């Protein structure tokens, strides 16, 4: 079946919506797992934009900068896969400055602030509005229909066995890798999920594998 284009926001924005309840803004998973998922999505945005690549160096899997060394500040503005912003630019700057770190180290490092970083970006884009709680803050979607669309379109595609575009293949893979897919996907067709992931380029498959492993380690460490 021909691939269908399913328009969306930036990858991390889509995942943020999927990892939170639409009405309350509460996280569906533990904060540490949410952070790892959003960190992976930010790295995924840079991979989709051709700004970082995966390399095997001395037996370790590392992330290295790719593409032009100094992209224009407005390059690809507005496009969910190619646009640069302060959040992804900060992540890229860290990777440029410290290329010797392992993939897993970057996931853990970015995860520390990923939730706040993505929420701030989405608030600036009028996608979220902060709600002050007694001891913390939550973020509610400005448009509930828009918040439901990322997961909704994936569920429709899975049910119809439609082929996803690259960004939505990564989004689906991250929902599964983080475990939030158990809460938001209507059905879990193992063959469809495997086929979707297999259609990704090797670096994006590595992103999903590293995320799943990091989430697994985080779950074990909490026991």
Walkthrough of the structure:
The protein is mostly helical and 223 residues long. 56% of the residues lie in helices and 10% in strands. The protein is built from 9 helices and 4 strands; from the N terminus they run H-H-E-E-H-H-E-E-H-H-H-H-H. A two-stranded antiparallel sheet has the order 1-2. A hairpin with a 2-residue loop joins strand 1 and strand 2 (60-65). Mean pLDDT is 88; it is low at 1-7 and 71-83.
Q: Figure out the total of helices.
A: 9
Task: Output the radius of gyration.
Answer: 17 Å
Helix content: 55-70%
The dominant shape is globular
Order of helices and strands: HHEEHHEEHHHHH
pLDDT average, as an integer? 88
Q: What fraction of residues sit in β-strands?
A: 5-15%
Let me know the largest β-sheet: 2 strands, antiparallel
Question: Brief overview, please?
Answer:
With 223 residues, the protein is mainly alpha-helical. The chain has 9 helices and 4 strands; from the N terminus they run H-H-E-E-H-H-E-E-H-H-H-H-H.
Task: Chart the SSEs and their pairings.
Elements: H1 11-18, H2 31-48, E1 52-57, E2 60-65, H3 86-97, H4 103-124, E3 128-132, E4 137-141, H5 144-160, H6 166-178, H7 181-184, H8 190-198, H9 202-222
Antiparallel strand pairs: 1-2, 3-4
Task: Provide the descriptors you would attach to this structure in a database record.
single chain, mainly alpha, disordered N terminus, two-stranded antiparallel ribbon
């Amino acid at each position: 079946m021909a691939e269908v284009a399913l328009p969306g926001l930036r990858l991390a924005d889509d995942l943020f919506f999927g990892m939170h309840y639409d009405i309350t803004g509460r996280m569906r998973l533990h904060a540490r797992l949410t952070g790892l998922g959003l960190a992976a999505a930010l790295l995924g945005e840079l991979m989709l934009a051709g700004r970082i690549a995966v390399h095997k160096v001395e037996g370790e899997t590392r992330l290295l900068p790719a593409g032009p060394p100094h992209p224009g500040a407005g390059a690809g503005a507005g496009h969910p896969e190619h646009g640069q912003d302060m959040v992804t630019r900060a992540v890229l700057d860290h990777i440029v400055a410290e290329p010797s770190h392992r993939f897993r180290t970057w996931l853990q490092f970015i995860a520390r602030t990923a939730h706040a970083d993505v929420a701030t970006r989405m608030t600036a884009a009028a996608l979220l509005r902060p709600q002050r709680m007694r001891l913390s803050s939550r973020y509610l979607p400005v448009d509930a229909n828009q918040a439901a669309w990322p997961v909704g379109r994936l569920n429709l595609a899975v049910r119809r066995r439609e082929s996803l575009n690259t960004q939505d293949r990564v989004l689906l893979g991250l929902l599964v890798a983080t475990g939030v897919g158990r809460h938001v996907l209507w059905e879990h067709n193992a063959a469809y999920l495997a086929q979707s992931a297999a259609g990704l380029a090797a670096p994006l498959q590595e992103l999903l594998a590293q995320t799943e492993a990091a989430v697994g380690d985080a779950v074990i460490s909490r026991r």
